[in-house]
Amino acid sequence: MRAYLRPISLLLVPWLAACAADPSMHHPSGRSMQTDFVQGEVRVTEHREGDDLLSAGLGLKGLAGALAPFADPLHPTAAELRRRAIQTSWKGIADLGPLGGYGSVYGGVPSIPGREYQAFARIPGAHAPHRVLAQVPDQFDQAHRCLVVTASSGSRGIYGAIALAGAWGLPRGCAVAYTDKGTGAGYFDYADDSGVALDGTRAKRGEKMLEFEPEPASADAGIAIKHVHSGDNPEADWGRHVLQAARFGLAMLDRAFPQQAPFTAQNTRIIATGLSNGGGAVLQAAGLDDEGMLAGVVVLEPNVHVEGQGRALYDYVTEAGVWLPCALTDARFATAPFARGPNGQPPPAWPLRCASLRALGLVSADNVSGQAAQAYEFLRAKGWSDAAMAVAATSTSFDLWRAIGAGYASAYLRRGVQNMPCGFHYAGMGANGAPGPANPALRAGWWADAAGVPPGNGVGLYGGSDAEEDPSLSGLRCLRALWDGTDAQAAALHVGVKATAARLPRSGLPLWVVHGADDGLLPTAFTSEPYVDWLRQQGRQPLYWKVPHAQHFDAFLPLPGFGERHVPLLPYGYLALDRLWAHLYEGGPWSDAWPTPAAQPRGASALERKALDLL
User: Can you tell me which residues the record assigns to a coiled coil (predicted)?
Assistant: First the structure.
């Protein structure tokens, strides 16, 4: 179960690095390799004989089980880190629980041998590199040349879309090109001046090229996060990252199969897919694809923003952080998962938020129930549905709104580790959750285990609080003021958000948006629906499924109360990709006549295919 470099790969590495260093190098066909954006070496590894591309040898049972161990937790090997990164990416995206039906009702994790090509790449003008990765299966389908390109969901690392793009594309014989889109868990710890090298292991500044190497600072400066502190506002370039990953994938196919080269967008169909932030990145790419590289697009629950329509992520996230704790105290949410504790009462902080809102004059009722009802009506008027609010109880319980708001504000404002807005900062979590040195064992595994925006994995989010009974409200209101305010800082944040808006894709591009009707993180009313409406107003013909009873996190379905109420979204993404394949390669239809499936929650028993209403 290890990634190993065979002699041929060892010979390839310097040749690949030379190609990256000299963009004038050409394939014998005369076509440029187009890898001038690669920084340093291209790392080539082979994965077979107990290891593979899709699960690192773990298979479905291993992916669903306990985290793959490190023989030496303080010094995990590159192969161990890769295996765990793949496993945690699967666990973060798919429902692998015993009742969820993955591998029996839909999906699967076959063993796919092949090669990986991984490198750091850079967008012109960017301060920090991003990762690109091409997975090339041994059984690449030469008769139906296909490259799937994708971007990680959330702020995850390079394998953050493997459960969607890899699970669908690799078994079909497609190569898959990934980008981390300038995010990922290549955290830099100033305490020992270390970051993450290309193979995932940690190294000190100056020893190796690092995934993220911020400006020097004192040892007590804390922990720097690429998405948050690179100074690049990477979200504004997510579409460029995706198109660059597609070019990288084609170049690596040239190198994997030189006798069949060149691989181009004219002879190899490029299918773009992604979910959540990855879906938004793909839609950004569709709007920037002036060369017509993309043959078709399928996105799930995209974080997409159209200027002047819908609502930007930062707007509704900071609104949710302030208002949802009080609104969820309302009796109508008493049965929502995570909205009530074992004693049948909401978390103590939520009624306190109602009192805080009244003290600020934002609600006027004299009791908690009245205050909660007023907060609920406020959010309803702002476009939140009951279903979205009910599911959002989980994100509220996990303090996700504050984590997103603090990190994204810093990214939009291009702040460094020591001047994040509203007094926030990241540091290791010491005793009792207080700031302290990072746990060395947790730090060694950050690249594989962390989700890309703390808190988590021994990294805490600190600051943005005061000594009041509702200590987090001051930081949340400060973050909200960056949206509602009129000062220079607020204006700068709006400039950063505006840069993330999607552009219009070309006419005739097959494009399908699949979104859960109950999404409480990226509600359809703020994201997919205004985007699809805008496309139609502009003469485009996107397909759109608003899947009943699906919410944002398939990985939450094993949690108490979730699987009984909701259906997974991944099977609908796989089906949409199947139909796109049939359209591109077999002349199949591409029609909005396909009805949205009448999905039904599985209840307390195991998921059955009839609940998904898949044709």
Answer: none
594 phi, psi to nearest 5 deg: -70, 120
Q: What is the pLDDT of residues 324-378, one digit of tens each?
A: 999 999 999 999 999 999 999 999 999 999 999 999 999 999 999 999 999 999 9
Cα separation, 92 vs 61, whole angstroms: 15
> How many C-beta atoms lie closer than 10 Å to residue 540's C-beta?
16
For residue 493, the SS3 value is helix
- State residue 609 phi and psi, 5-degree precision: -60, -35
User: How many C-beta atoms surround the C-beta of residue 228 within 10 A?
Assistant: 26
Any catalytic annotation for residue 465?
no
pLDDT of residue 23: 36
Q: What would the pLDDT profile of 447-476 be if each residue is shown by its tens digit?
A: 999 999 999 999 999 999 877 889 999 999
Query: Nearest CA to 220 among 239, 197, 193, 245?
Result: 193
As a whole number of angstroms, the distance between CA 598 and CA 128 comes to: 45
Strands 130-137 and 188-189: unpaired
> Which residues face 119 on adjacent strands?
42, 132
Placement of tokens 């015993």 in the chain: 98
Length of the chain: 615
Long-range contacts of the stretch 207-215 (C-beta < 8 A, 24+): 209/39, 209/40, 209/120, 210/186, 211/120, 211/129, 211/131, 211/184, 211/186, 211/447, 212/128, 212/129, 212/186, 212/187, 212/188, 213/128, 213/188, 214/188, 214/416, 214/417, 215/416
Q: Which among 305, 317, 270, 320 has a CA at the least distance from the CA of 510?
A: 270
Per the confidence metrics, is the pTM higher than 0.70?
yes
